[in-house]
Specification:
This protein has about 70 residues and is mostly beta strands. Helix content is about 0%, strand content about 50%. The chain is built from no helices and five strands. Strands 4-3-2-1-5 form a five-stranded antiparallel β-sheet, with no helix packed on it. A hairpin with a 3-residue loop joins strand 1 and strand 2.
């Protein structure tokens, strides 16, 4: 699953967040890319490696018309 800056996503245990940036960070000589989410409810910053989004349970927000079915 891929996100772009400005996309909204559900972050388990934190709520809905918006992608504020995609950053590269070097750790022990390896460069990793991270999504930087700002959680809308409390303003917290949450970072997740791009290649771990599915494993962390991050998903798209469902469309409004699907809410009734849920």
């Amino acid at each position: 699953m891929q996100f772009n800056i400005g996309d909204r996503a559900v972050i388990p245990a934190h709520g809905v967040g918006v992608v504020k940036d995609i950053e590269k960070k070097e750790m022990e000589g390896v460069i990793y890319e991270f999504y930087v989410f700002k959680i809308l409810d409390n303003g917290m910053t949450y970072m997740c490696p791009l290649n771990r989004v599915g494993e962390n349970g991050i998903r798209n927000v469902i469309p409004l018309e699907a809410v009734e079915r849920v």
